[in-house]
Amino acid sequence: MGHRELLLDAARRLLEDKGYAHITARDLVAASGTNLASIGYHFGSKNGLLNAALGDVFEEWTDALAEVALADPHASPLQRAHLTWATVLLHLADKRALLLSFVEALAQAERDPALREQLAEVQDRTRTRVAEIVATSYGDADVHADDPRCTAVAGFILAVCDGLALQWLLDPQRSPRPEHLLAGLNDLVARSQN
Amino acid sequence: MGHRELLLDAARRLLEDKGYAHITARDLVAASGTNLASIGYHFGSKNGLLNAALGDVFEEWTDALAEVALADPHASPLQRAHLTWATVLLHLADKRALLLSFVEALAQAERDPALREQLAEVQDRTRTRVAEIVATSYGDADVHADDPRCTAVAGFILAVCDGLALQWLLDPQRSPRPEHLLAGLNDLVARSQN
DNA sequence: CGTCCATCTATACGGATGTATAAATCCGGG
DNA sequence: CCCGGATTTATACATCCGTATAGATGGACG
After folding, report:
1. Contact A99, A20 (CB under 8 A)
2. Angle A96-109/B96-109 helices, nearest 10 degrees?
3. Could you tell me which of B94, B54, B90, B165 has the C-alpha nearest to residue A166?
């Protein structure tokens, strides 16, 4: 394996247990057994390397979620949403540093257009994907993923995912539990129909 | 005004238009017309100063939101939620750097227990406050803010707020619009009742 | 007026970091 | 075998940052 692959691997490992912002070029060298200058040679800069690695990890994470949401082909949209939220919360504990990496990257993206573009693209792809799942669960061939109803539901589900993760990051103890979310949602809608 | 107040003011100003992470001690000195050593003298450290300022700004922001949510005493919970989401999205454009400061602070909080404690406390207070509003709109004297139904709804509303803000930060163009959220929510629940 | 404490000033220190440079090494092809 | 481009190595550089230190200043008070 060349230094390129070694560095990419090390970056992924570090992202998953040290976060993004506090990884130094020398950390990457130590974890990969390569050389300081190889970072610049293969990736242009430290951030170039980190961002390349981050994209991969991010994508895998959303892949895993999509798989869960699709597990039961007969689930209703709400059931899928609930399942997704529950899964997010369930796996959060293992992925704390990774989640932190996303948050740090999000902050960093404000000053790094390339990174921002990359993250936005992943986000958009995720939204589209969720919209597709929603469309499928309509069971109506005329309803496609780009139907406003589907994108709306997708945006909503993902907003809850993001918000959940954020609240959990700050205070796991008091963060909402999935069944409460579902109850809250039902209650919210029920009360407005009186 | 002593250096203490000058620094606090400068910190708030910088937080609102430069974010958190990239403020240097020398920025604070320049913006306040004080002295490098005054930071240490009055606040112990640069982060001490920044965190003190951040707490204030954060609190004002949630105050403003609560006021909006309470504007119409006859609104249903869902109407309040919708109004809150719409308001968040509406004001986001003015508060971009501030929102970024929160995200950066959230990342920083992982390595700064005092900051984390402080942010978690504000979050908790906010959640309680929203729960109180929800309880009020039940119009039932037996339902209090600590009723699970209220805290559940509150957690849910805030999760959506957070998620919305996050998506908007990354990509304002394609972030969900409040009316779509509402439509998505209704659709989600309606479809699950078939 | 003189003392003393709080506050303010100017500067130095120590350290860490990302990147560039130049030399060494490797390896495939002629 | 040997050449040359690709890669790897070792190190130097330049910069920036947070904080500590030591002394100046100012004003309240006896």
Report:
1. no
2. 150
3. B165
Task: For residue B74, give the nearest of B119, B139, B17, B130 by alpha carbon.
Answer: B139
Identify the burial level of A174 via C-beta atoms within 10 angstroms of its C-beta, where 0-12 means exposed, 13-18 middle and 19 or more buried.
middle
- Residues 15-74 (B) near nucleic chain D, CB < 7 A: 23-26, 36-37, 39-40, 45-47
B113 touches chain A (CB under 8 A): no
Report pLDDT digits (tens) over A21-37: 999 999 999 999 999 99
Locus of tokens 């037996």: B142
Contacts of A5 (CB under 8 A, 6+ apart): none
Structure tokens at A141: 């061939």
Residue B140 amino acid letter: D
pTM confidence score? 0.88
B-facing residues of A in 15-74 (CB < 8 A) are: 19, 21-22
Q: How many residues does chain A have?
A: 194
* Model confidence pLDDT, tens digit, residues A127-138: 898 888 888 877
Q: How far apart are CA B81 and CA B158, in angstroms?
A: 9
Q: How many CA atoms lie within 13 A of B134 on its CB side?
A: 32
CB B104 within 8 Å of CB B21: yes
Rg (CA), chain A: 19
Domain spanning A51-192, CATH architecture: Orthogonal Bundle (1.10)
* Domain extent listing, chain A: 51-192
**Measured distance CA(B134)–CA(B130) in Å, rounded:** 6
Rounded distance between C-alpha atoms, residue A73 and residue A57, angstroms: 26
Q: Distance between CA B11 and CA B29 in Å, rounded?
A: 10
